[in-house]
């Protein structure tokens, strides 16, 4: 019995990349491009209308970003598997995508075979990440498993996450966007971090955090 054709939605705000990827995927036996979308809001609408098997999603798009679009698509249609295909190598973006329900995460430097393999895998219920991304996911969970004595134990896990992003040079606005929090919530967390670490400002907090190995 022949394999069922995998129907794919391609969402990316760069027209050349979006259409190029659609043409490429449409040339692969067993894959049909059901449609394309130029931003996250349109991706949500087209996913609801077309009901593809897989949505290939960029992250940074105008209006609704790919993380929130993924969250809405998965909430509305849990059978649609999302593969994030992005330029972003940041841990915060990776884990935000996974938390939103993405089943795959590839960088845009991935080759055709890797993209097709990821689409096929998630369509069959698997989760798949590019080699470099998979290594970082493994390191993250290994670190979580051995976090009996975390750095700055006086901080909550969320505060440590935000401090790590502060140490990496992210602004409050960028942190709020990556973690899907309000700017006010991030500001409050940063203030709590400063108080708990007994530091006077952001620069001092960054020095303390980097000395402890965060934000690298």
UniProtKB/TrEMBL annotation:
Pfam families: GerE, Response_reg. Keywords: DNA-binding, Phosphoprotein, Transcription, Transcription regulation. Residues 7-123 form the Response regulatory domain. The modification 4-aspartylphosphate is found at residue 58. Transmembrane segments: none annotated. InterPro entries: CheY-like_superfamily (IPR011006), NreC/VraR/RcsB-like_REC (IPR058245), Sig_transdc_resp-reg_C-effctor (IPR016032), Sig_transdc_resp-reg_receiver (IPR001789), Tscrpt_reg_LuxR_C (IPR000792), WalR-like (IPR039420). It comes from the Bacteria. The keyword Magnesium does not apply. Residues 148-213 form the HTH luxR-type domain. One of its GO terms (biological process) is phosphorelay signal transduction system. GO terms for molecular function: DNA binding. This is DNA-binding NarL/FixJ family response regulator. It comes from Nonomuraea dietziae.
């Amino acid at each position: 019995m022949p394999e069922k054709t995998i129907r794919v939605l391609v969402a990316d705000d760069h027209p050349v990349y979006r259409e190029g990827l659609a043409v490429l995927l449409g040339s692969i036996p067993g894959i049909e491009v059901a449609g394309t979308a130029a931003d996250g809001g349109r991706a949500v609408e087209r996913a609801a209308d077309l009901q593809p098997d897989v949505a290939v999603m960029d992250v940074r798009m105008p209006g609704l970003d790919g993380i929130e679009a993924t969250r809405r698509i998965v909430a509305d249609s849990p059978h649609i598997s999302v593969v994030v295909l992005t330029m972003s190598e940041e841990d915060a973006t990776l884990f935000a995508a996974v938390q939103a329900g993405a089943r795959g995460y590839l960088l845009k430097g991935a080759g055709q075979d890797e993209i097709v393999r990821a689409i096929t895998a998630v369509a069959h219920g698997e989760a798949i990440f590019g080699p470099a991304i998979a290594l970082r996911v493994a390191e993250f969970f290994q670190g979580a498993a051995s976090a009996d004595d975390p750095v700055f134990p006086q901080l909550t896990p969320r505060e440590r996450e935000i401090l790590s992003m502060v140490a990496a040079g992210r602004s409050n606005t960028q942190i709020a966007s990556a973690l899907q929090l309000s700017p006010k919530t991030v500001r409050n967390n940063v203030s709590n971090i400063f108080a708990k670490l007994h530091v006077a400002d952001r620069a001092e907090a960054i020095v303390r955090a980097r000395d402890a190995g965060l934000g690298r």
